[in-house]
TrEMBL record:
InterPro entries found in the cross-reference section: PIN-like_dom_sf, XPG/Rad2, XPG/Rad2_eukaryotes, XPG_DNA_repair_N
Domain spans labelled XPG N-terminal: 1-98
Organism, as annotated: Ostreococcus sp. 'lucimarinus'
GO MF, any single term: single-stranded DNA binding
GO biological process, one term: nucleotide-excision repair
UniProt key word rRNA-binding: no
Lineage of the organism: Eukaryota, Viridiplantae, Chlorophyta, Mamiellophyceae, Mamiellales
UniProt-listed SUPFAM superfamilies: PIN domain-like
Name by which UniProt lists this protein: XPG N-terminal domain-containing protein
Highest taxon in the source lineage: Eukaryota
Family per record: Belongs to the XPG/RAD2 endonuclease family. XPG subfamily.
Compartment annotation: Nucleus
GO-annotated cellular components: nucleus
Amino acid sequence: MGVRDLWRLLEPSGRRADCESVRGKRVAVDASIWLVQFIKATRDEDGDVAARAHVAGFFRRIARLLRHGARPVFVFDGATPALKRRTTATRRRARERSAAKVRVAAEKVLLNELKRRALVAAANGVKESLNL
């Protein structure tokens, strides 16, 4: 979910920094964001989440920070805030409603296809009986 307009709020004091500028400094890492990034971005040939993507991703990024002399400090989310819980619940309900609509539509398509096939079979049967 993130913090709405965070970058706009930080813009006046924010500045880009080279990796070299972190030498000897502690760097806070949002571990949850890293996990989501690795899971969403790392896929296998079939498009599924790659096995141990989070481990490989963490290792590469930690190695890079250490190579530049940074001392990473990992921060994990605490309890989910009430607003985020409500937003997540609303999104889940919307997904469930959409999935239900898809199921209903799929059932209608299947039923129509079965009816069409039954009509074709019946028409073929009538045609054959008339040709006899």
